[in-house]
Amino acid sequence: MADPTTHARPVEFRGGGFSPKPIRALGPVVFVVLIVLWEIGSQTGVISALVLPAPSEALAALRDLWVSGELWLHLGASLQRLSLGWTIGSVLGITLGLCIGLFSTVRAGVAPLVSAIFPIPKIALLPLFIIWFGIGEESKVALILFGTFFPTVIFTYGGIDNVDRGLIRMGQSFGLSWFSIVRKIILPGALPAILSGMRISSAIAIILIVAAELIAAEKGIGAYVQIAGSLFATDQLIAGVSILSVLGLTVSWLIGRAERFLLRWRN
Amino acid sequence: MDLHLESITHRYGDLLVLEGIDLEIKSGQIVCVIGPSGCGKSTLLRFIGGLEQPDSGNVLQLGDPPADSLNPLTYIFQDFALLPWRTVEGNVSLVLEDHGLGGAAAARIIEDVLARTKLSDFKKAFPKQLSGGMKQRVAIARALAVKPAVMLMDEPLSGLDAQTRELLMDDLIGLWTRERITVVYVTHNLNEAVRLGHKIVVLSRRPGRIREIIEIDTPIEQRTRGDAALEEKQVLLWNLLRDEAVAADMELASG
User: Fold this and answer.
1) What was the pLDDT predicted at B255?
2) Looking at this predicted complex, what is its ipTM?
3) Disulfide check for A217: which of A223, B40, B53, B81 has CB 3.0–4.6 Å away?
4) Which top CATH class is A72-266?
């Protein structure tokens, strides 16, 4: 077969790539390097203290918060508003999403309304919330509730629409009741989408907590950030914002754990 | 329990898919339905089990199903239709729960049907962990759990590779020999039809009409691979189907 006059060479490899591999250490390294560079910049005066406070100053502000015990006061107040608003918003959102997913009349009547209200920045409605719910806890919880409700609705009925019709037909062919089909086939089938929705809505809730605590709040991370901002206490501002970031990471990690547990059949 | 199909006609919009189908399905028989793609054979199967309704004509049950049958008309689907979030055991238990069977009674049935389909060791496995052949055996176990009078099989082996298909076909033959369940078996595979069918119904291309009904008298358990008489039947079927298949293919190609 081989012709002695032609030379042999290996076939050029052109596969591979396009499959992200986990490199565990790199993320923290980038983070640490940035902070160190920032600190050096501040110490040497390359970054003016007016423009950006040094990380060490932000850390000091954080320590003050810790030592004075205010941290838990602020965090407690925010967490209460967040968990209340997010839980009620999610429960109501899943309920309405389920109704839109299951009943044609609800879908035809309500889905356009949901789509219309979903993109409104809820912060713009803040004055209305104050008029409706006063300046107490209610208006703060309501803002978060409102902000998390709509994405949850949309993710839930989207998830229901994507449930394999073949599985529903199977359920019918075995004589399962309507209720059983909803509970044992449709809901678990929509669960991945519902959890994705919760991930999004939890981020939205954290974004909204700052706005919610604009309303006459003395306690809360959002309020702390607001006050720091208005006083141009940028070290406290950075400290508050990093608490929000850690809060977001924690919630997203918790949802990740919940996904791993509830959707373990996928792996 | 026999089934009787009376002049079933159906359209999807303006498209006539089935026309004047009359068919008798006798208790204990395997009736295979073959035809070119798009001839409405799967639609016909959905009519038989009551998942869809024909525009005109009737599907009649003659006589009562056995008293212990939980779901007289039970399907086996081409894509298995297993719930991915339930284990093998959970998928079988799904169809018992609505009949008020739980606990020990359900466990006994599940144990029994998994043993009959050689799946006892995989009780706790999720569908994703199983091969195609095993998934279809889970679906068969699930069907057996409700003690069907008639099994309605929609191309049950079409999603499997050739070797698995042969193995599962042997399983089906073994199953039928033991239980003598009535089966309506839709397929486009002529070999499956001559191996499994007492009666082979050949449908024409759309609109599906019955072109011919072929009976094979050789007992199913005595039919072997490469049997000359069966080969002959298969050639006969192919000759019947060939022109229809070519025409159906052209139809699709021209939109």
Assistant:
1) 44
2) 0.90
3) A223
4) mainly alpha
Chain B residues inside the 8 Å CB shell of A188: 83, 85
**Residue B142 token pair:** 């699930």
The one-letter code for the residue type at A92 is L
Most B CBs within 10 A among A170, A182, A184, hence the mutation to make, goes to A170
What percent of chain B stands above pLDDT 90? 66
Interface test with A, best of B74, B98, B109, B136 (most A CBs within 10 A): B98
Per-residue model confidence as pLDDT tens digits over B6-61: 999 999 988 899 999 999 999 999 999 998 887 889 999 999 999 999 999 999 99
Domain range list for chain A: 72-266
d(CA B128, CA A51): 55
> Using CB atoms, which residue from A171, A172, A265 is nearest to B128?
A265
**Pair B40, B52: CB distance under 8 Å:** no
Task: With CB atoms and an 8 Å threshold, state whether B51 touches A177.
Answer: no
The answer for B73, left when phi > 0, alpha when psi is -120 to 50, beta otherwise, is beta
Percent of chain B's residues with pLDDT above 70: 98
Element (H, E) at B34: strand B30-34
Distance from CA of A69 to the nearest CA of B (A): 46
User: What b/e sequence results for B13-23 when a residue is b if at least 16 CB atoms lie within 10 Å of its CB, and e otherwise?
Assistant: eeebbbbebeb
| Bridge partners (DSSP) listed for residue B127 | none
B47 Cα distance to chain centroid: 13
Q: Which helix (H) or strand (E) holds B208?
A: none
State the pLDDT at residue B56: 93
Whether B94 sits inside 8 A of A167 (CB atoms) is no
Q: Of A171, A173, A266, which is closest to B49 when you measure between CB atoms?
A: A173
Instruction: Name which of A113, A101, A201, A209 is nearest A158 in CA terms.
Output: A101
DSSP conformation class of B81: -
Please say whether the beta carbons of B41 and B208 come within 8 A: yes
Interchain contact, B83 vs A185, CB within 8 Å: yes
Q: Say yes or no for a CB contact (<8 Å) between A174 and B49.
A: no
Structure tokens at A27: 């993320």
Number of H helices, E strands in chain B: 7, 9
**Lowest mean pLDDT segment, chosen from A76-80, A135-139, B133-137:** A135-139
Nearest CA in chain B to A187: B85
CB nearest to B98's CB, from A175, A191, A265: A175
